[in-house]
Write a structure and sequence with these properties.
This protein is elongated. The strands form three sheets. It has a four-stranded antiparallel beta sheet, with no helix packed on it. A three-stranded antiparallel beta sheet has the order 3-7-6, with no helix packed on it. It has a two-stranded antiparallel sheet with strand order 1-9. The chain folds into two domains: about 100 residues; about 90 residues, no CATH class. Helix content is about 35%, strand content about 20%. The longest helix is centred in the last third of the chain and has 23 residues. β4 and β5 form a beta hairpin. It has six helices and nine strands; from the N terminus they run βααββββαββββααα.
Amino acid sequence: MPRKIILATLVDRCRRRFAAEGDTQIEDAEIQEWISELVGELHTTVDEKGARYFESEATIVTTGDVRQPLPDDHLSTIGVDAMVNGETGPRRPLHGPLPVQYRSRVIGRTGPACYWAHEGTDLALYPVPAAGLVYRHLYVPQPPDLSTAPLNTAVDLIDIWGEKMVLWGVASIGQHKGSTSQVRAVDECQRAREQVEYWACQRALVASTSRVVDDFDWDELFCRHHDWRL
């Protein structure tokens, strides 16, 4: 289960962690900004290990153009699937990301998409599919910006070590603004970060990659139809 804590509660806990109760020189809004930064670091620490904890899925309905805009919160793409029977039913995975060296072999071709690529801030599908087709885009989102979020927002800190990483990380910033030594706060934050990394690696370890065996050779069908191979 996620370890979710209300943002207002998190602000209060951070204040107590660096002994700033009743301190009017540091406003709650500033502490909330620090929390947003540390939560962003927490998300990135987990995402970089491939733990697949934070994921989103977007539906793409093609317009006949090669490029589709990436979601506003897009960080990286996990995969793209073509929906075989409209919006429901089985999926056909697209291959990607398509190496840029192969761009001249796919540009200008039309037909069912078999490959995806990142192009600027867009997702490109090759060959260019007809308008009205449905694809699913599985991706890792950017960490949320909590600096101006409502105080009743539930913040997912994953586990106790994620909570400690945020609390001690914010404490080190608060102590930096004052006269209190940061040494313990920095050490505790680093210890918590290492535990979060260990958890993320363990989660990714049991989700090791394996060869996917498909009953139908989509590449062969595509190559026969278009008489080319990458």
